[in-house]
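User: For my dataset I need records formatted as: sequence, then structure tokens, nothing else. Please produce one.
Assistant:
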Amino acid sequence: GIIVEGLSEHSVGSEEDLMYLIDIGEERRVWAETRQNSVSSRSHTIFAIEVRQTMENESEFRGTFNLVDLAGSEKVGKSGVQGQLFEEGTKINLSLSALGNVIHALTSGLDHI
């Protein structure tokens, strides 16, 4: 299967527990200052929140909320970054381009991405 480094799964019993985990995720985000953006996000974040409700007759309802925040695309040459930040910017742009290809393939009914 697919392995995502740093991915974690948690069960919560209250809104406070959920907000605590969202706060932890936010603290782990990576930011950097560039010429184009003083708080440029350098990481993608995905929160998949599954809500389950068990009824008195033991039937269960489920719903999933996917909250996605993608790192921003910047013109690397105009951003003024060098070294590691330049490499990060290049990889961010490449990953967003790949995501665009996947979305295009899925919405166009293509057999291969």
